[in-house]
Amino acid sequence: MNIHSILYIPQPKANAPIRLVCFPYAGGGASLFFPWLNLMPEKVEVAIIQLPGRGTRFSESPYESMDDIVECIYRALKELPSKELIFFGHSMGARIAYEITLRIYHRKEQLPVHFIASGSPAPCVRSKKPPCHNLPTEEFIKHLGTLNGTPKEVLSDPQLMELLLPALRADFKIAEGYLNTTRITIPTTITLFSGRLDDINTEELEPWFLLFQYNRDIVWFEGGHFFINENHSELISALKKEIMNCNSLDLI
């Protein structure tokens, strides 16, 4: 496990007291969060999870289990200089972030001061969709097109898709098999982000609030599951508001 390449900090800020750790959705890479870098408050350093099989780790084999992903990210976080942590995860990224938060909690270490779960049903909610990771290539690519998370020019490039498919299938296999019914209340704060047109309903979101001691709200955005890409400015405004509202942090 390469713990040094899994966590990418494009613009290190040694004096920033806060580290915003961003976890992408299945198949997503660090570049998803590059537009955020110059939009965050000066006191916030952005760290981005870069899983193998994409971006600068394109040639590496993807992880095949949630445990491998979580252990590698956990160890990488421990090696960084200490800062207050805020976790933001979208879709599968939210579940990875939750598993890391659980690991931190069980090992009695410093928890993130805020957790933002975006575009994700609660960990205890079993997926209602049939698995797609093992579909034949043509059907799998067609399915990816219906999700609107992969650019059409990428989906229509057979050579590029041949290179991307192993990481995409591995991510979807992990996401589709994920379920955690643990009922531990983590003593930190959570906010939920969700798209109004996403097929994740309120009943699937609300169990998140049982897993954290301090709950804010569900922040709704126009768009579907990938509102994170569709409503960039609104999302950034909401994210900055959540950061500013962290009671233990003085960002003003």
From TrEMBL:
Positions of the Thioesterase domain: 19-241
Record-level GO BP terms: lipid biosynthetic process
InterPro entries linked to this entry: AB_hydrolase_fold, TEII, Thioesterase
A matching Pfam family: Thioesterase
Domain of life: Bacteria
PANTHER family assigned: S-ACYL FATTY ACID SYNTHASE THIOESTERASE, MEDIUM CHAIN (PTHR11487:SF0), THIOESTERASE (PTHR11487)
Protein name: Thioesterase domain-containing protein
Species: Cellvibrio mixtus
